[in-house]
Specification:
The protein is 48% helix and 12% strand. It is of the alpha+beta class. The strands form three sheets. The protein has a five-stranded antiparallel β-sheet with strand order 1-2-3-5-4, with helices on one face.
Length: 335
Amino acid sequence: MTETASDIRLANYLRTRRKEEAGDIAVNALSGDASTRRYFRLIPKSGPTSIVALYPDPFDAVATPFYTVGQALIQMGLPVPRLLGQDGALGIYEQEDLGDRTLQHVLGESSASQKIDLYREAIDEIVMAQREAPKVPQRAVCFHTAFDIEKLSWELHYFEKHFLELHRRVDLSVEDRSKLAEGFHSLAAQIASWPRVLCHRDYHSRNLMQHHGRLYWIDYQDARMGPATYDLASLLRDSYVTLDEEFVQERAEEFRQKGAPDETRETFTQRFELMSIQRNLKALGTFGYMAVVRNNPVYLPYIPGTLAQVKRNLDRHPELASLNGVLRRHLEELK
């Protein structure tokens, strides 16, 4: 079998960084995420395993968002995997192996009370990040980028292109596009006007790992400033886990009391639901992109549940009736 450029780079890393044991390390490829990174588990004959993230291009190992955001999270006391090695020229980070137990996996074997405890822990970590972020040096890129109206609108139009047009092959009329643009702008403008805190940005059940009895954060390099409800919407309106509506409302209220006690329940609920709409539409755009552009169908099973969440929240907001009307005409699941 011909070695790929990635194989060669990983072999070079092992020779230079783990040279004393390079020949005794087994390398297992892991399934990737929606990014262009590749992941491998290094299994030495003795000692702990580790995870290598192989990026497509070289980088400055101490200047990337992964490194700077990770350092900021550590300063906040948040649980992230330890960095064990790096080689920017080869496009490699090596980090602590947290195992394979994502929150999604753990929930499948948890009792009702354990499930509540897991979500309370995850919510407490959101609250901790929002509370501690202003106290650490603001050098990382996450403190200087935000979910502004441009970013939020871009994500909604990404949904329009990759989910509606490419995946569902919807033929949008000029009027449809105008109404979508108007609805997207209204939703994005409202969300962008809210106070901003630090957000993980992709805080769902596949990016939380249970390790040594605690939930660890992964895939945090795209963190940025945004609404207090952003990570909560990612967690409780998760495409990968179906949660009972009463459970969602109870956990959301617990978050409000801990993380947004100055907001009335009415204001908080409105913001949580609108944020959920934007977040779920963005996720659908990613699922469409992966299926059509990347020819990866792995996310297709999660589309029906995500659309169901979009329907629930859109139906509760008459101010988005025009947007809802266009989507209902073209998406059977929203009717």
